[in-house]
Amino acid sequence: MDWTQMSLKGLGVDLYRESQQSNKLIMRKVGLSNSEWTSIIKMSANVTAVRGNARSGNQDHRCRHCGAEKESLAHVLDYCEHGKLLIINRHNTIRTLIANSLRTKNWIVHEEVFDPTQSRRVDMIAYSKDKKEGFIIDPTVIFEKTTDQPDKAHVNKCAIYNPCIPFFQQKYLIKNIEVIGLMIGARGTIPLKFQEFCGRFNLPKSLIEDVAVATVKYSVQILHHHFKPPITPSPQT
User: Fold this and answer.
1) Is residue 3 part of a domain?
2) CA distances in angstroms from 57 to 74, 188, 227, listed in the order given
3) Model-level pTM greater than 0.85?
4) What are the tens digits of pLDDT across the range 28-43?
């Protein structure tokens, strides 16, 4: 469709095609306030009032808080130091939703486990009770730009965490361990690879809805927090 061909408003919208379940959820406003839903629609079309979207060539497009780079929606939702704590909370919430869902299927799951041999902390490691197979699972919430992002996220996580496999095999006495990198779109898109992951582990369909809603709710918080003017101390009398 023409929308996907637009360089700014069409950025990453191809990924919306991959999960009709989560898209319908957003359109039905399930679990969302009117304010949140309005912000999500603006984010989906990439027409939020970030400085990078301003048409005036005379306007300073640098981030109003960190000044490090152009203030794009991707910068606000993924990188800006001003919203770092909310960005971390969004990630941790998604990780725990996935971990808890795996636990309901009798997987043993540990979150935030450190490998001293590689100086790496893995988001979660899940393994079967017989310890024949295990998985290092690392979800990443990132602004949607291209359809190959889910594949790239997985390849990147494998490169990072494959060296950790021997340590965790020894630590938990697991025979085989596989690394799985999962991308979740910051605007609530659920790539096909995430759906395939849910099917592989027989996770409930409700997980997709829970992850999509939690992600966009946090992204809205991050965006609104970014737009709030700084608090000016009152003058001392």
Assistant:
1) no
2) 20, 31, 21
3) yes
4) 777 788 888 889 888 9
